[in-house]
Amino acid sequence: MKNRWKMTAVSLCAVLAFGGCSAASGNHKEAETADTAQEDQVEKTQEDEETEEPEYQVNLDMIEPSAYNNVDGLTLEPGAYLSILGRSSEGAYWSKVQEGVEQAVEDLNQNLGYEGKDKIKVTYNAPSDSDNVDEQVNILDEELARYPEAVGISIADVSACGVQFDLAAENGIPVVAFDSGSDYQGLLATVLTDNDASAREAAARLTETMEETGEVIIISDDSRLKTDQIREASFRDEIQANHPGVTVTNTYYLDQMGDTEEEVSPAETILEANPGVKGIFATSADAVSLALEICEGMEQRPAVVGYDAEEEETEALADGDLDGLIVQNPFGMGYATVVAAVRAATNQGNEAVINTGYTWVSADNLEEEAIQKILY
Question: Quick one: which of 261, 314, 272, 273 has its CA closest to 292?
């Protein structure tokens, strides 16, 4: 009897011991599960931070079609070379174009896993003097001699570069245009602002500020630029078609003014010829600068709208010396130009026109976060 009780007691102890071990094991597993969940959450947070959209995404989102706001699916041979030519090497606008170009190539190399000598290379070249046609043609000649996979160019003169474009075609080098194109039939794509729509909006905004009455003058950056030709024509057409109380009296071209030794400045000359002007439409940052100079000599400032978002312009907008700006998307333009160039080089096909978007900016929305992100 005593032996049976001992055996029962031993069995009971064993059961209790096993139960204790099981409970401890269960608690340990629960702790491990909690730790794992916490680690997973930390990793997820880190992944979310790593995949957070870059600040320039807002610029890419403006591009249409959307196939041109990313480099997914694109490929080039290791060490391939792309050549991009602007119209100027100076100014915030062209700096943003270059940033977009370089970012697209960086994204492409990352997607393809290219490192070191295998990286796709790109150069951005432009005349030292803005819109120097001869210098741009010379740069293009030099770049074609390097046999790039493709060329992207902002054409400084609609009648220039035809011989170079023919030579590029003979050597299998595709050419895409950006910012300002031409009527050359061999261009495989043109990446730019919708100049027709933006100029019409500028006309509507300007005439509204003028209360739909009065005389307007146009200050155009360059008579040789297809972009400026379209802006002027579309602005005039919108005024004539929908704003009968407003009259466009004169157009002045910066490239035709040149340097003058006369004591009277271009601003004074324009003001003297248009004493009753109530509105000024400027097709570029340089044109806006002249418009602001004209306004300094007037007792009552005319309404002024223009293009771009250089520092002088945004300051004038904030100070009430300017009524509104068509802000383009130079970063997106540079990025989409690389995408179009790569697609052309690899025979993937291109849209004839890629629209990089624009935004109307006035004193009312200048300080908004979304607007601040697209200024340059």
Answer: 314
User: What is the per-residue pLDDT for 146?
Assistant: 97
Confidence of residue 171 (pLDDT cuts 50, 70, 90): very high
Q: How far apart are CA 182 and CA 13, in angstroms?
A: 95
The span from the CA of 68 to the CA of 65, in Å, is 6
Give the angle 133-139-142 at the CA atoms, nearest 5°: 145
- Measured CA to CA, the distance from residue 11 to residue 73 in angstroms comes to 70
**Contacts of residue 331, Cβ cutoff 8 Å, sequence gap at least 6:** 56, 59, 96, 97, 99, 100, 103, 376
Q: What length does the chain have?
A: 376
Q: How far apart are CA 163 and CA 141, in angstroms?
A: 10
- Which pLDDT value is given to residue 49? 47
Has residue 37 got a pLDDT over 80? no
CB of 64 closer than 8 Å to CB of 129: no
* Amino acid identity, position 121: K
What is the distance between the alpha carbons of residues 271 and 222, in angstroms, rounded to a whole number? 20
280: β partners? 217, 304
Please state whether beta strands 359-361 and 353-355 pair in parallel, antiparallel, or not at all (unpaired).
Answer: unpaired
**Number of other residues whose CB lies within 10 A of the CB of residue 340:** 26
Mean pLDDT within 191-199: 98
Q: Does residue 230 contact residue 180 with C-beta atoms inside 8 Å?
A: no
Query: Do 350 and 189 contact (CB within 8 A), yes or no?
Result: yes
